[in-house]
């Protein structure tokens, strides 16, 4: 399965003759299961707009976003259903993404029922418990009846990851998914994402401004500036031999973040839940 942007652009036009804003210009990228790609850039660089295009939350103004070779704008019902199951999102604000009036079990269970992944109370409960186990919320039964305000920030982010995982996605688009977490909790969530890639073959499109994080987890990096992808390449090359002045500028400004290893440490170190 392949998620691709092909010369995709997004232009926002002012309602009262205020001109146009070209948020994304001629962007091309490829995401596959089992690959961890990162899109980096400063605030306003267009990376979150590109993420919304990849998720089909907003349409491309030019070019196309394709899933398995079919443009999202041209999908039939069956193709769109497959896309919705295969490509999921984990967003920055877990508190705002979870309904405060719904328990964890209900929030995830409704996704299971909506997409027809399981039917019947026992089967739905089983899928929810499995997803909570996968993200390190143990014992999972103890989280089913909790409300978002009863969870820490790290636990809420894990619930969002579980909500995405319950549909067995091939690719997760994560937009600033760890930026609101403190360093120790961030490290645990990043180790979790890396572990899910190794165990389940999940691929990621990871949107961030945090280059030290990218250095720890990404395989391939796209650098965005003013709506354009100005550099792309394997992580090792981007960090050791940047070709664009803007990439070098980002690297010079980045602070070193001491994160313990990723997937390899999971069997030795517990995952901090925050």
UniProtKB/TrEMBL annotation:
Lineage: superkingdom: Bacteria
Keywords, in A-Z order: ATP-binding, Nucleotide-binding, Transport
Xref: CDD domains: ABC_NikE_OppD_transporters
GO BP field: peptide transport; transmembrane transport
Cited InterPro entries: AAA+_ATPase, ABC_transp_ATP-bind, ABC_transporter-like_ATP-bd, ABC_transporter-like_CS, Oligopep_ABC_C, P-loop_NTPase
Database matches in SUPFAM superfamilies: P-loop containing nucleoside triphosphate hydrolases
Molecular function via GO: ATP binding; ATP hydrolysis activity
Keyword Transport: yes
ABC transporter domain boundaries: 3-251
Keyword Nucleotide-binding: yes
UniProt xrefs under Pfam families: ABC_tran, oligo_HPY
Membership in a protein family: Belongs to the ABC transporter superfamily.
Name of the protein described by the UniProt record: ABC transporter domain-containing protein
Organism of this sequence: Microbacterium album
Taxonomic lineage from the root: Bacteria, Bacillati, Actinomycetota, Actinomycetes, Micrococcales
